[in-house]
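Sat 14:20. Reprocessing the chain from the morning session after the first attempt stalled halfway. Input below, unchanged.
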Amino acid sequence: MANASSDSVASTAVNEVGKSAMSTAAPQASSKPRHPSLWVRELPFIVVLALTILGVAYTSVSRQPIIVYWEILAPIIGVVCVTYGWHSATDKAGRLRLISTQLLHWLAFLVVINLVLLPSVQRVLTANATGIAIFTLLTLGTFTAGVHVLSWQICLLGMIMALGIPAIAWIENSALIFVLIAAGVLGIVAVFWWHWRERGSAESAR
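Finished this time. C-alpha cells:
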C-alpha cells in the first residue's frame, strides 16, 4: 500500500510539472512575433514597379507625356521608401528624421517638375522632351531616395526606371514591351532570390 501511494504521489507530481511546463511554454510560443509573408513585405515594391512599367508603356505607345501620373507616383514612391526604411529607424527621432527627409526629398522633386512646366521653359521644350525630362527626374529621385534609406529594392527600382528612359525615346513599341516586362520580372526575381539567400544563410548559421 505504501508503495502504491508513493507511486501515485510521484505520478501526480510528474503530471503537475508537465502541466506547468506546458503552461509556461504556451505563452512563450504565443508571444513569438509573427513576421509578415514575403509577398506582403515586397508588395509595395511590386506595385510601384508595375505602375512604373504601365506608365512607361503608355507614354511610349501614345507618345503623350503623362505628367500628372508621375506627379502622383512620386509621393507613392516616397511612402514606399518610408516603409522600407522604417525597420532601420530604431527610435522615434530616427523615424521622424526618416519621414522629414523623404518629405523634403520628394517635395523638392515636385518643385523642380513645376519649374520645368513654366511657360518660359515650355517654349524651349517639346511635349515629348518634357515628359522624358520629368521621368528622368523621377528616376534620379527614386534611386537617391533608395540610397538615403539604404534600400537596395528602391535602388533597383530606380535602375529599372532608368531603362525606361531610352525605351520612351528610342525603342519601338513591340521591343519596348519585351524589355520592360523582362526588366520587371528580373527585378521581382532578384528580390525574392535575395530573401531566399538570406533565409538560407540564417538557417545554416543556427
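The chain has one domain: 38-205.
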